[in-house]
Amino acid sequence: MREISNIVILTGAGISAESGLATFRGPEGLWEGHRVEDVATPEAFARDPVLVHRFYDARRANLKTVAPNAAHLALARLDAEWPGELLIVTQNVDDLHERAGAKRILHMHGELRSAWCLACDARSRWEEDLGDHPPCPSCGAAGRLRPDIVWFGEMPYAMEAIDAALMNADLFVSIGTSGAVYPAAGFVQTARYRGAETLEMNLEPSLGSFHFHESRTGRAGELVPQWVEEMLR
Ligand code: APR
């Protein structure tokens, strides 16, 4: 087996499920509660910004009621102690990786705690409600802030950095994602094509499980700490 030095870890909603944040496609899934077209598209925001702001304001407020779980904490420990390169690419817009202490994180779908001004293009850290149409902290324009979330049909963030990391990875690990949404669902194929080992940890086999050298099924709160112990042994 190839010497492992550079690790890329992809996380999805499943890693935050045990912190109490709903996943998107489970029985209690977030999108089940809201039709995707109603909240997570640029068209929805143009049509009904109040509804979209209310949806994300509720999710932002919910962040205050949850905490990182054992899987987030284990990844933060690996981030701190792993001697090689390590990158956590998360599809999640929560801040649980940061609050667990991880540092090397890329949010490819944006963040609930960030707002984007459509007048001056500036991003600003955001804790409160955008539904009150607050002024942009950078340019002062009122009512021009949108959630800094990558919506369906929009380009994910940091794709060049992610592709570069995948090209250079010795190990690609996918945690808590259904493999339903691209480009993230294709990362395993890129990594494998470049000769990386690939490991999936998920509550059930994902849509792309067959691409992985190894697939472990179970709760992230159990599987991820076990895996980190193995890596740091
Ligand atoms: N431990 C591990 N995996 C879990 C757990 C758990 N405790 N609970 C649920 N899962 C798994 C589910 O089995 C599912 O395969 O997590 C996965 C979550 O899948 P989705 O709900 O589809 O979430 P995700 O893959 O992150 O969605 C990707 O789709 O809607 C868009 O932009 C949104 O970032 C999101 C993207």
From TrEMBL:
<comment type="similarity">
    <text>Belongs to the sirtuin family. Class III subfamily.</text>
</comment>
<dbReference type="InterPro" id="IPR026590">
    <property type="entry name" value="Ssirtuin_cat_dom"/>
</dbReference>
<comment type="function">
    <text>NAD-dependent lysine deacetylase and desuccinylase that specifically removes acetyl and succinyl groups on target proteins. Modulates the activities of several proteins which are inactive in their acylated form.</text>
</comment>
<feature type="binding site">
    <location>
        <position position="59"/>
    </location>
    <ligand>
        <name>substrate</name>
    </ligand>
</feature>
<dbReference type="InterPro" id="IPR003000">
    <property type="entry name" value="Sirtuin"/>
</dbReference>
<feature type="binding site">
    <location>
        <position position="117"/>
    </location>
    <ligand>
        <name>Zn(2+)</name>
    </ligand>
</feature>
<feature type="binding site">
    <location>
        <begin position="12"/>
        <end position="31"/>
    </location>
    <ligand>
        <name>NAD(+)</name>
    </ligand>
</feature>
<dbReference type="Pfam" id="PF02146">
    <property type="entry name" value="SIR2"/>
</dbReference>
<keyword id="KW-0520">NAD</keyword>
<keyword id="KW-0808">Transferase</keyword>
<dbReference type="InterPro" id="IPR050134">
    <property type="entry name" value="NAD-dep_sirtuin_deacylases"/>
</dbReference>
<feature type="binding site">
    <location>
        <begin position="176"/>
        <end position="178"/>
    </location>
    <ligand>
        <name>NAD(+)</name>
    </ligand>
</feature>
<keyword id="KW-0479">Metal-binding</keyword>
<keyword id="KW-0963">Cytoplasm</keyword>
<feature type="domain" description="Deacetylase sirtuin-type">
    <location>
        <begin position="1"/>
        <end position="233"/>
    </location>
</feature>
<feature type="active site" description="Proton acceptor">
    <location>
        <position position="109"/>
    </location>
</feature>
<feature type="binding site">
    <location>
        <position position="136"/>
    </location>
    <ligand>
        <name>Zn(2+)</name>
    </ligand>
</feature>
<dbReference type="InterPro" id="IPR029035">
    <property type="entry name" value="DHS-like_NAD/FAD-binding_dom"/>
</dbReference>
<keyword id="KW-0862">Zinc</keyword>
<dbReference type="InterPro" id="IPR026591">
    <property type="entry name" value="Sirtuin_cat_small_dom_sf"/>
</dbReference>
<dbReference type="GO" id="GO:0008270">
    <property type="term" value="F:zinc ion binding"/>
</dbReference>
<dbReference type="GO" id="GO:0036054">
    <property type="term" value="F:protein-malonyllysine demalonylase activity"/>
</dbReference>
<dbReference type="GO" id="GO:0017136">
    <property type="term" value="F:histone deacetylase activity, NAD-dependent"/>
</dbReference>
<feature type="binding site">
    <location>
        <begin position="91"/>
        <end position="94"/>
    </location>
    <ligand>
        <name>NAD(+)</name>
    </ligand>
</feature>
<feature type="binding site">
    <location>
        <position position="139"/>
    </location>
    <ligand>
        <name>Zn(2+)</name>
    </ligand>
</feature>
<dbReference type="GO" id="GO:0036055">
    <property type="term" value="F:protein-succinyllysine desuccinylase activity"/>
</dbReference>
<feature type="binding site">
    <location>
        <position position="220"/>
    </location>
    <ligand>
        <name>NAD(+)</name>
    </ligand>
</feature>
<dbReference type="GO" id="GO:0005737">
    <property type="term" value="C:cytoplasm"/>
</dbReference>
<feature type="binding site">
    <location>
        <position position="120"/>
    </location>
    <ligand>
        <name>Zn(2+)</name>
    </ligand>
</feature>
<dbReference type="InterPro" id="IPR027546">
    <property type="entry name" value="Sirtuin_class_III"/>
</dbReference>
<feature type="binding site">
    <location>
        <begin position="202"/>
        <end position="204"/>
    </location>
    <ligand>
        <name>NAD(+)</name>
    </ligand>
</feature>
<feature type="binding site">
    <location>
        <position position="56"/>
    </location>
    <ligand>
        <name>substrate</name>
    </ligand>
</feature>
<dbReference type="GO" id="GO:0070403">
    <property type="term" value="F:NAD+ binding"/>
</dbReference>
<protein>
    <recommendedName>
        <fullName>NAD-dependent protein deacylase</fullName>
        <ecNumber>2.3.1.286</ecNumber>
    </recommendedName>
</protein>
